[in-house]
Design brief:
By secondary structure, the chain is α+β, with helices and mostly antiparallel strands. It folds into 6 domains: 38 residues; 136 residues, Orthogonal Bundle (Triger factor/SurA peptide-binding fold), CATH 1.10.4030; 125 residues, Chitinase A, domain 3, CATH 3.10.50; 125 residues; 81 residues, no CATH class; 103 residues, Chitinase A, domain 3, CATH 3.10.50. 45% of the residues lie in helices and 20% in strands. The strands form 6 sheets. Strands 4, 12, 13, 16 and 17 form a 5-stranded antiparallel β-sheet that branches. β9 and β10 form a beta hairpin. α3 crosses α7 and α9 packs across α19. The chain is globular.
Length: 714
């Protein structure tokens, strides 16, 4: 029977099976990848903390609420991730211990007399150093009123802040529990008291490592292994790290670029001289103008003398300052007061205030101004009633101030604009001020000038950037292996330098020598094989793409980087092959120290040892066994131990340290007033408890089950 006949005979059942299989495929796909899958949407999971998944969508939403797109996004994400990890660990541990934060306790932490450190850090008035209770009370009243006018973002932030406060309180409780469990037994306190009851003075010789030339020492593989067996703990990593090598091609403006920019500024200067609106012209030509008057000593020495000789309205330039061509126009000249007395009424608002609060503050200031100008109320009585800072009780009086003592907007108003007896309004970081100048003093009668600047940055042209980019691109596209790339680069560009990065972790976004940001993050992602568009690299591979670093303000490419993967170091103490290049100098120093130690071993005359290496015998006086360092020697615990363990007038065995080889000879021991055992116990207990509090969260994280997939997302 042919296949067509079979389909005709059994077509009904064939179609049913095919449709069922198709539907089944869609269902399985939805189960595996859909948002409503049995196992959840794995594509949205950015990690898990003690088995609790962290959803990338929730994470991104919280990040946007907290930071609103400003600042260093990678630092912010790192801080948010760490907070989420710590919060989950603290909550789980608190639940196991039966700890919590009740409603009344939370209210006290948010609004009461025992405020959370989170509240005090965010609501402390920088002028008084005191918590702004008025603002806290306003927020509390608004929230408890259930008003629908409250910004939803603020409500969400306040709920998030509650979580921060609870987490901080629980963490403090648990750290205190752990700290209170610490005990210092009498025998230990007595031992420490005995150690504190004497000092020693010792002669010593320190033989520096450069006493042995590098070429006198040959390193073998067994040297590296022996060194890591003794000092491997210094290079231990909690998680896998990778090292990059890279070559930077700097982009610098050419003489041609510079000349074109100068010519453009000269064209601007011609218009600057004749413009009828200096302020607008300055704003449109990358200029600066703040309305202040400056004395000669406050101006750049490049233009100070000229400005005080030229007529008002004249323009001087172009001249070069830092990385700009600049021109300056003299706008005015006058004598300014040496000090000014003023008073103000402050209504507090800031960037976190709602539009309604800001609008109300302006309305209040306008009403107060009108009452004073109409003679219906006095300034000092209104300041006492409405002022929201420490000067309110004094009628708003600020006393005499010299230039620069007040924040700039306030300073510029009272010194350069305000006339005594008139009312002015100014906004500062502290809020909205109603201001009156009450007195001025002219002592030195120094002249000051008001100036405006226009400028153009001396930046590389598009053509120059492209030329440098092609140099880097040619290398990246021509060589897959880093050694071959470097060889070719040095032949073509003899002055090129190969740099090695710090060890980077999978979620790092900062590379030593290059800085942080998106480009460094892209390089780290490539090094760990997390870039979905590039193949996973192996040590010795060169990246197939170049990395472009943009100037943070002027938006031109300031450097192009070609990179290679130097090495991979697994978590834990490294193997020799993982860090051989990085530790070569350390191993060399260690072996040089052994050579020195062998040459002076068994010698009992410090003077002859010093003469052998053209050194002097030094003295360390009044050394305590419990000291962390010794004057003239530094933090050398092995040396301190040898001073006390070596018999008086005897010479110690050679002591190898990172800085050299020591021989010590204790000369005398001096008794000291003995500390009471109870006092020693209290001091030790305080120190140990402080360490427990500081390391509590670190210990909690160390034993936690944390899976981190952030590198899949950013």
């Amino acid at each position: 029977m042919g296949i067509n006949q079979t389909i005709r005979d059994h077509g009904k059942w064939v179609m049913i099976v095919m449709v069922a299989l198709a539907l089944g495929g869609f269902i399985i796909m939805d189960i595996m990848t859909g948002q409503g899958s049995l196992w959840g949407n794995s594509q949205a999971v950015m990690g898990s903390i003690e088995g609790e998944k962290v959803d990338i969508r929730e994470f991104n939403s919280t990040e946007q609420m907290l930071y609103r797109g400003g600042g260093d996004s990678y630092a912010q994400r790192n801080a948010l991730w760490n907070y989420m990890v710590e919060k989950r660990l603290v909550e789980k541990e608190a639940e196991n211990l039966g700890l919590g934060v009740g409603d009344e306790e939370l209210e006290e932490l948010m609004y009461g007399q025992n405020l959370s450190p989170i509240i005090t850090s965010r609501f402390t008035d920088p002028t008084t150093g005191q918590v702004d209770r008025n603002r806290l009370n306003q927020i509390r009243q608004t929230l408890e009123s259930g008003s629908t006018d409250v910004d939803p973002n603020f409500l969400r932030f306040w709920e998030y802040q509650k979580g921060e406060i609870i987490k901080d309180r629980l963490q403090t409780k648990m750290a205190e529990l752990a700290a209170k469990a610490i005990y210092v037994p009498s025998w230990q306190a007595q031992m420490i008291a005995n150690d504190e009851s004497k000092t020693r003075t010792a002669a010593y010789v320190k033989i520096p490592l450069d006493a042995i030339p590098d070429d006198e020492v040959t390193l073998e593989d067994q040297d590296y292994k022996a060194y890591l067996q003794e000092y491997g703990w210094k290079y231990k990593q909690d998680e896998e790290v990778r090292r990059l090598q890279y070559i930077v091609f700097e982009v610098k403006p050419t003489a041609k670029d510079s000349m074109k920019i100068r010519q453009k500024l000269e064209e601007d200067i011609a218009q600057f001289k004749t413009t009828s609106n200096d302020t607008l012209f300055i704003q449109n030509h990358n200029g600066t103008f703040d309305g202040a008057y400056y004395k000669k000593s406050e101006l750049s020495p490049l233009v100070a003398d000229t400005l005080f000789k030229m007529p008002v309205g004249e323009v001087y330039g172009p001249y070069v300052e830092a990385d700009q061509y600049k021109a300056v126009k003299l706008l005015d000249r006058k004598v300014v007061p040496d000090s000014v007395r003023a008073r103000h009424i402050l209504i507090r608002v800031d960037q976190n205030s709602s539009p309604q609060q800001i609008s109300q503050a302006f309305a209040t200031i306008d009403s107060l101004k009108q009452l004073i100008e109409e003679g219906k109320a006095s300034f000092d009585s209104l300041a006492l009633q409405f002022g929201q800072d420490g000067t309110a009780a004094k009628g708003g009086d600020l006393g005499f101030a010299a230039p620069g003592q007040m924040v700039k907007p306030f300073n510029d108003l009272i010194f350069f604009e305000a006339e005594p007896g008139k009312l002015y309004t100014v906004t500062t970081q502290f809020g909205l001020h109603l201001v009156e100048v009450t007195d001025r003093k002219f002592i030195n009668k120094d002249e000051a000038v008001k100036v405006g600047y226009i400028s153009r940055y001396i930046t590389p042209s598009q053509e120059t950037q492209k030329t440098v980019q092609l140099k880097a691109l040619e290398l990246a596209e021509s060589y897959k292996k880093w050694d071959e790339l470097v060889k070719a680069a040095k032949q073509k560009y003899p002055d090129i330098k190969v740099q090695t990065s710090n060890p980077v972790k999978r979620n790092d976004y900062f590379i030593s020598g290059l800085g942080g940001g998106n480009t460094s993050r892209d390089m780290v992602r490539w090094a760990f094989g997390d870039d979905p568009n590039l193949e996973d690299p192996q040590p010795g591979d060169a990246s197939p793409v170049i990395y472009r670093y943009q100037h943070p303000e002027r938006l031109y490419y300031e450097k192009f980087v070609v990179a290679g993967l130097k090495g991979i170091q697994k978590a834990g103490i490294p193997a020799v092959q993982e860090v051989k290049d990085e530790i070569e100098q350390d191993v060399l120093n260690w072996k040089k120290a052994q050579v020195i130690a062998e040459r002076v071993k068994g010698k009992s005359d410090l003077s002859s040892v010093a003469a052998q290496f053209q050194l002097q015998v030094d003295t360390a006086a009044n050394v305590k066994f419990t000291a962390s360092s010794v004057q003239g020697i530094g933090p050398e615990p092995k040396v301190i131990a040898a001073i006390f363990l070596t018999p008086l007038t005897s010479v110690s065995d050679p002591i190898i340290s990172d800085s050299g080889v020591f021989l010590v000879k204790p000369l005398e021991e001096t008794p000291q007033p003995a500390m009471a055992v109870d006092q020693v116990r209290r001091l030790q207990l305080t120190s140990l408890q402080s360490n427990v509090r500081a390391r509590f969260m670190q210990a909690l994280r160390k034993k936690a089950r944390i899976k981190d997939y952030r590198a899949n997302f950013f």
